[in-house]
Design goal:
Elements (H helix, E strand, L loop, with lengths): L7 E2 L15 E3 L2 E2 L2 H18 L13 H4 L2 H22 L5 H14 L3 H10 L4 H17 L2 H9 L13 E3 L31 E4 L4 E4 L11 E5 L4 E4 L13 E4 L4 E4 L7 E5 L4 E4 L13 E4 L4 E4 L31 E3 L12
Antiparallel strand pairs: 1-3, 2-4, 5-6, 6-7, 7-8, 9-10, 10-11, 11-12, 13-14, 14-15
Helix pairs in contact: 1-3, 1-5, 1-6, 3-6, 3-7, 4-6
């Protein structure tokens, strides 16, 4: 178990089921345990999972959160943001203050691009401003205020986490800016650029229903194996982990399966990775019967398989001519035409069989 000395909250606060139009202040007096944090994190993940896109091509029903995210992964997510909080204290020689958490809650409520989802998150956390400050604002703030190198170092740290914050704090539930009926079609709204990835081209972008995942690409100097998750609900960005990430590349493809983003190919590579945004983890794609390396190819998610076709190999040759049968790689496709290149064994881990 990971020990914590944590912020305080009022155990005598009355139960409130809906405070959408009401702001109030909470003075804290009891501890929030690690187990409670994990329970609240599960409530947050339930909201996010509910809004993640389940592709209509999938033959199976959308599973429960428990099928895609384990208790250990929930605990690691909580331990991760508390490690960031501890790293913040070590880097700046002070803890994150209650005033900073209050300001962050206000920022999220004001600049959320998905106020309805944010409202669901607040309700999932009981509309308790203390819980919202500690379990929603703290993870975002610690990630945003720390230099990337320190965040990366904190992610690599395996140790018990201790975190001490203010023993008495007053929080006010912020009013969420409601854009319903006030938005205009065909207009642009700026997103936060804090922690935005390095400027790049030839990268991929995937929308999950709750985050935009940017990955890979290149600029005039470097090719990248880095990426970013932009969460419009909190108007914040989180770097994708580089642990087990595919090698740096551009001109690759990416598809969304319902629970993972699959990256493959690019820079004449024939490797790839499955990225889970809920756990911020990578798993390498199978190398069995893998097609020949290529870039500038195309890829689609067909419901239980990812199918790739075409592209250019390392000699600059196109990997099929219109009307021709010149394939530089052949992968068995029993259900599809043989001119398609299918990556088998790229099914989600909860029961689908590759066909």
């Amino acid at each position: 178990m990971i020990p914590f000395a944590l912020a305080q909250r009022d155990a005598t606060k009355p139960s409130v089921t809906h405070l959408r139009d009401l702001a109030w202040t909470l003075v804290s007096h009891t501890t929030l345990t690690f187990a409670e944090r994990v329970s609240y994190q599960r409530s947050i993940e339930e909201v996010y999972w509910r809004h993640r896109i389940w592709p209509k091509e999938r033959p199976d029903p959308k599973p429960s959160l428990d099928a895609v995210m384990s208790q250990a992964q929930l605990e690691e997510k909580v331990a991760g943001y508390m490690r960031n909080s501890q790293a913040f204290e070590g880097y700046y020689h002070r803890p994150i203050t209650a005033d900073e958490l209050e300001t962050e809650m206000d920022r999220i409520a004001k600049y959320s691009k998905q106020p309805n989802v944010l409202r669901e998150l607040f309700e999932a956390l009981g509309n308790d401003p203390f819980v919202i400050a500690e379990c929603l604002a703290r993870p975002v703030l610690a990630e945003r205020l720390l230099p990337r190198s320190i965040v990366h170092e904190a992610r690599q740290t395996i140790r018990a986490v201790t975190q001490t914050v203010a023993t008495t704090a007053k929080y006010t539930l912020p009013l969420i800016q409601d854009t319903e009926g006030g938005c205009s079609n065909d207009t642009w709204t700026a997103t936060s650029t804090i922690n935005a990835p390095t400027a790049r081209a030839f990268h991929t972008a995937v929308w999950t229903g709750i985050e935009l995942i940017i990955w890979g690409g290149q600029n005039s100097v470097n090719v990248f194996s880095t990426g970013s998750l932009y969460n419009p609900t909190t108007d914040s960005r989180t770097a994708t982990t580089t642990v087990n990430a595919p090698s740096a590349r551009s001109n690759h493809t990416a598809v969304w399966t319902g629970s993972e983003m699959i990256v493959w190919g690019g820079n004449t590579e024939n490797t790839g990775g499955r990225y889970n945004p809920a756990t911020n983890t990578w798993t390498a794609t199978s190398a069995t019967n893998v097609p020949i390396a290529r870039d500038f190819h195309t890829a689609v998610w067909a419901g239980s398989e990812m199918i790739i076709w075409g592209g250019i190999d390392d000699m600059g040759f196109r990997l099929n001519r219109v009307g021709g049968t010149i394939l530089r790689a052949t992968v068995g496709c029993r259900r599809l035409q043989p001119t398609y290149l299918m990556l088998e064994l790229l099914t989600p881990p909860y029961g689908l069989e590759a066909r």
